[in-house]
Design the sequence.
């Protein structure tokens, strides 16, 4: 069964005949498992059992994360006598909807009425709640099972409490819509029921049932999961201005601070003059915060001067009035234009072999046609709408930090270390995040605030970053050159593939910089290239790091998908093939890729997931390609200067394909009237938020592709604000994004990530569409809004 | 000293008249619904109404607002049921939600001046309000919904 989910109700009324056919076919499958109608290319075999089967536990990469998972309902759920259910939400909300979606899982499994559920945001405490690092599109992937277990356990406890009250066997008690109903011996409802509130005390006093005894609801019994009509928990607060983000915390006697930081990484203060700053009304103090200069720095503070004032504005004025003489250090030589040339030269030479299959050199030497191009991307900054901010207070030997942080427990441990305090004496409160995109899992901004409060004798203080600070002092998405070479034989079949990646590595943030990348980066669209090419080699060239490199929504998948999916389209044109058909041919036969036969590295990183459970499945990848193409009307005739481009990518254990429709104005302005994205994230929970993530991914993809770029000159970032680091606006964004969510076809299609995987296919699909529309091939990101 | 009506309440403001309203509202008046996004008038997160018209509060000083009436997201409607707020909820516009107070204030100002905006009018009015999560498609839909009556 293929379940199409439209992005707007209106579109449902305007279905094309093709969609209707597919839906009819789907229905026939539900009824009788009929064979697929001819003329429809749907690779996926139907496994209707999945709709009826309950959850069967399976291992995930959560076991490899710090503090793993916790599935104890006594930790996550409380029911009070009124029947109100409180659910702890332990992952950070930055816009994905996870603060709603995971509690939905709990509430559904325990038969709670969503209207009676209240949420409590957990403090940073992984030993208690399990891993809280909200990153890597992992929240649903790793916590759907523990949350279902919590809910199922609580349901069982409620039923046991009712059984004790009625003096009947628990088998005759069934939780249903916030009550437990009594059944007769035939399984019929007797009409007797007890509300959750009346069972609360007895149920909550019961021990947590053994996991082996739990039963799970079947999808047919779900009330919230997979329904798509649950609003996000904070929706009303957001629309009336009551939602609390990082800067909205207010503490009695709180001061406000702004900071001068070095523009060049590792620069030290030689001398400074703060006398003008101290004359500004409201400015109280200027405090030096020591930086950490020894590498690796991890998320240590850059150091600088904090201006403490009675309003943020006074602190910012004070900050601007300070003059500093810096000792710039060795990174002042970092210039993006020269660095790009160096990366390019490195990519032209053989690099360290990371994956090798067959004999690539032989394939190229006997090739009939050879393709070789390189693709360049600049650094990016996450640029969440909420600039970094944190508040801190130290009182009675306890430090408290309030922050919009993606990883509150990791932050707590490092803040404790910076303060020279015990972890148990530090509390990290998590506010809503006004966007994160990876930046807010690096807690330098919290360490700064904590150190500042300590220097102020524990006084409560909020340290607000300006937009310029946020732009200039990030952990940047890497800059890269990806060189792709292909060899084709007489028949036009690709027999050789060589990919060289050259990019400063994230690992330099955590370990001495070797100049080479590490398995996590190799695993994101580089060594895991899913192509059926007999001779294939992936090489990594050296690139030393001169700034803080971090992760940005989708990380290395962005440049890799751009290069790989652009190159495949280029080769298709070179061989006179349709890009979609050629892409499917490159992916090749139905299979789960054999890592050993494919010459994958021993330490292949599969998003942290066990490969057996989360293999690279070409059936699923080809399926999203076909669905996106079908839905977008691939092959249709378009007016002049318009075109379709396609790209597909597996990331974070999900499969995504996008078809971007480009229309290029007479002045060269690139517009995107429509995008169709097919997403297979396995067993999905909240289709409404999946759609919003995919819509947002297209907009961010457009920003990455056309607008945004961070460049360095003499070691300092050249951009400062949205004026010179533009992002897509209402004036030019993908106007209509249609999301096709694939219904999982087999119980082995486990829940994958959603927050990030929508981003990578967009830029190559756009570039391929620009080529289709204009004949111009773009290989450098950002492209700029206009193409000639 | 300036005299400004904030959400219907008359306030006397002492101190630097060059202070942007944003910081007066957030740090002095305690109205944190208005957000700081860029400080340069280029993102729209701090949008409020000055005598009913959308302005960027990071670029509007206390002095410029003297004798005028300021409305923030907290004061847009007494019960949170302004047509724009309702439309935003109906369409489930927000992702992270940080920019949405500014978006809603901008949209409310547009509709107060133009009750039946065209698609071009909506783009024109809303294009200065950035959303990094990329909710533009739903923002456009919600403005149209609010204009049509929720």
Sequence:
């Amino acid at each position: 069964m293929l379940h199409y989910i439209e992005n707007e109700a209106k579109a449902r009324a305007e279905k094309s005949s093709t969609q209707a056919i597919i839906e009819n076919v789907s229905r026939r499958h539900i009824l009788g498992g009929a064979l697929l109608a001819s003329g429809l290319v749907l690779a996926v075999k139907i496994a209707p059992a999945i709709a009826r089967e309950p959850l069967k536990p399976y291992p995930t990469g959560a076991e490899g994360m710090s503090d793993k998972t916790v599935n104890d309902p006594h930790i996550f759920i409380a029911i009070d006598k009124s029947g109100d259910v409180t659910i702890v939400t332990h992952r950070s909300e930055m816009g994905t909807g996870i603060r709603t979606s995971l509690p939905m899982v709990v509430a559904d499994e325990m038969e709670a009425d969503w209207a009676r559920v209240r949420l409590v945001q957990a403090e940073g405490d992984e030993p208690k709640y399990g891993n809280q690092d909200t990153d890597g599109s992992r929240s649903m992937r790793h916590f759907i099972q523990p949350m279902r277990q919590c809910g199922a356990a609580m349901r069982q406890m409620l039923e046991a409490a009712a059984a004790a009250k009625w003096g009947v066997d628990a088998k005759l008690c069934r939780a249903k819509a916030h009550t437990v109903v009594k059944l007769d011996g035939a399984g019929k409802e007797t009409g007797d029921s007890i509300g959750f509130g009346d069972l609360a005390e007895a149920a909550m006093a019961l021990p947590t049932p053994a996991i082996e005894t739990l039963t799970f609801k079947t999808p047919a019994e779900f009330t919230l999961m997979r329904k798509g009509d649950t609003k996000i928990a904070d929706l009303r607060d957001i629309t009336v201005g009551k939602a609390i983000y990082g800067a909205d915390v207010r503490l009695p006697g709180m001061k406000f601070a702004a900071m001068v930081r070095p523009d060049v990484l590792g620069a030290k203060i030689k001398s400074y003059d703060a006398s003008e700053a101290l004359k500004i009304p409201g400015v109280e103090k200027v405090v030096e915060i020591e930086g950490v200069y020894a590498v690796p720095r991890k998320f240590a503070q850059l150091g600088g001067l904090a201006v403490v004032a009675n309003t943020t504005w006074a602190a910012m004025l004070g900050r601007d009035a300070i003059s500093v003489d810096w000792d710039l250090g060795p990174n002042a030589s970092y210039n993006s234009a020269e660095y790009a040339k160096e990366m390019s030269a490195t990519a032209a030479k053989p690099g360290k072999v990371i994956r090798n299959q067959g004999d690539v050199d032989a394939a190229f030497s006997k090739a009939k046609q050879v393709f070789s191009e390189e693709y360049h991307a600049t650094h990016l900054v996450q640029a969440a709408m909420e600039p970094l901010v944190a508040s801190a207070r130290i009182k009675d030997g306890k430090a408290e930090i309030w922050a919009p942080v993606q990883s509150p427990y990791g932050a707590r441990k490092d803040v404790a270390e910076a303060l020279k305090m015990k972890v148990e004496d530090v509390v990290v409160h998590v506010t809503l995040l006004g966007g994160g995109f990876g930046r807010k899992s690096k807690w330098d901004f919290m360490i700064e605030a904590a150190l500042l409060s300590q220097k102020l004798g524990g006084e409560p203080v909020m340290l607000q970053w300006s937009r310029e600070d946020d732009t200039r002092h990030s952990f940047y998405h890497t800059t890269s050159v990806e060189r792709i070479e292909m060899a084709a034989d007489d028949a036009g079949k690709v027999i050789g593939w060589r990919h060289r990646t050259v990019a400063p590595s994230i690992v330099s943030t955590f370990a001495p910089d070797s100049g080479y990348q590490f398995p996590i980066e190799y695993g994101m669209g580089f060594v895991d290239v899913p192509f059926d090419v007999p001779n294939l080699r992936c090489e990594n060239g050296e690139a030393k790091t001169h700034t803080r490199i971090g992760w940005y929504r989708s990380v290395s998948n962005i440049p890799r998908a751009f290069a790989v999916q652009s190159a495949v389209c280029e080769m298709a044109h070179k061989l006179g093939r349709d890009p979609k058909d050629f892409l499917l041919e490159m992916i090749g036969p139905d299979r789960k890729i054999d890592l050993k036969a494919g010459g994958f590295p021993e330490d292949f990183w599969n998003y942290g997931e066990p490969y057996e459970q989360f293999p690279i499945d070409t059936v699923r990848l080809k399926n999203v390609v076909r669905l996106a193409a079908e839905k977008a009307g691939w092959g249709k005739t378009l007016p002049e200067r318009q075109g379709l481009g396609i790209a597909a990518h597996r990331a974070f254990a999900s499969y995504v394909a996008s078809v971007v429709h480009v229309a290029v104005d007479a002045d060269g302005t690139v517009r995107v009237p429509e995008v169709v994205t097919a997403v297979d994230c396995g067993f999905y929970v909240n289709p409404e938020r999946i759609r919003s993530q995919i819509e947002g991914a297209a907009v961010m993809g457009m920003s990455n592709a056309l607008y945004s770029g961070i460049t360095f000159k003499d070691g300092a970032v050249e951009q400062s604000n949205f004026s010179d680091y533009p992002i897509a606006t209402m004036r030019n964004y993908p106007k209509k994004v249609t999301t096709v969510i694939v219904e999982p076809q087999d119980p082995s299609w486990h829940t994958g990530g959603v927050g990030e995987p929508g981003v990578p296919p967009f830029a190559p699909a756009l570039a391929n569409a620009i080529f289709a529309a204009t004949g111009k091939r773009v290989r450098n990101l950002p492209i700029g809004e206009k193409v000639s | 000293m300036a005299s400004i009506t904030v959400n219907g309440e008359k306030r006397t403001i002492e101190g630097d008249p060059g202070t942007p309203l944003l910081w007066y509202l957030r740090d002095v008046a305690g109205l944190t619904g208005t957000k700081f996004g860029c400080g340069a008038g280029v993102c729209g997160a701090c949008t409020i109404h000055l005598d009913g018209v959308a302005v960027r509060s990071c670029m509007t000083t206390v002095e410029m607002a003297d004798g005028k009436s300021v409305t923030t997201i907290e004061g847009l409607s007494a019960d949170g049921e302004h047509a724009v707020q309702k439309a935003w909820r109906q369409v489930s516009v927000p992702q992270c939600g940080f920019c949405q107070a500014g978006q809603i204030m901008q949209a409310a100002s547009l509709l107060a001046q133009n009750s039946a905006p065209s698609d071009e009018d909506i783009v024109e009015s809303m294009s200065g309000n950035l959303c990094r999560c990329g909710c533009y498609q739903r923002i456009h839909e919600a403005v149209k919904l609010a204009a049509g009556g929720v």
Chain B has a mean pLDDT of 97. The two ends of chain B are 41 Å apart (CA to CA). Helices of chain B lie at 21-28, 83-90, 100-113, 119-126, 136-148. Strands of chain B lie at 2-6, 9-13, 47-50, 53-56, 69-71.
